[in-house]
Amino acid sequence: MKWTKEELSPYQRALRDRFLAVPVLSAPEPWESVFTSCAAVGGLLGIGFAVHPDSGHDLVMVVSQDGHGLFDAVTGEKIARDRDPDPQDSTPDSAPDLSCPGLGPIAGSRVHIAGLFGGGLHSTTGDGWTVEVVTPAWPNERVLLSHGDGMPHRGPHGERWWHVFHSNYSELRAVGFSPSGQTLAVATSSDVTLWTRRTTTAAAASSSTD
Question: Nearest Cα to 16, choosing from 108, 103, 99, 134?
Fold first, then answer.
């Protein structure tokens, strides 16, 4: 959603003013931040999701000007790094499906990458969470997380919708959920921020029963 200087309807003006007025809030339960703030990734081009073949954790693959990296989206651990990928596969625009080769535990597969060159991530989950990007004051983009049907923005901020990220320092690259719906990611040209709703305790319990 992007507003210009063209005439807005009263409803659009009120919505824009509401988005401009609300502060950034922590994502609500059951979401938890994976990093203390974010993981710095200079020259980030895009990100993609995969699944760890052993733990079942969501993985986030990061493609940057300095190579490829792989994060565990539950623990935040960087579990693989390739500083010198094959030039033919270093960026996703080299492949028709915007993919790059996996690394570490997902070597031998390919990961679809969303970001500077196009592509996209899931904007909804199966149980009613939605993420969207709005730009009430271009070029600074805001990421909104909401839950439930209808028009969540009509309700109080912090009850059905939350302003969870303000991209006022770097260019936004990609925003969305993992296919499992257990991870939310926001990637900018300088870093990646992750939220999970699969705790390490729950993950360990799940693994022990597999």
Answer: 134
* Residue 105 and residue 79 in contact, taking contact as beta carbons nearer than 8 Å: yes
Each residue's pLDDT tens digit, 61-112: 999 999 999 999 999 999 999 999 999 999 999 999 999 999 999 999 999 9
The CB-based long-range contact list for 81-89 (8 Å cut-off, 24+ gap) reads none
159: Cβ contacts below 8 Å, ≥ 6 apart: none
H helices within the chain, ranges in order? Answer: 10-21, 200-209
Q: Which residues contact 132 (CB under 8 A, 6 or more apart)?
A: 1, 123, 143, 144, 146
Beta-sheet pairing, 140-147 with 161-167: antiparallel
φ and ψ of 117, to 5 deg:
-95, 5
Q: What is the pLDDT of residue 210?
A: 45
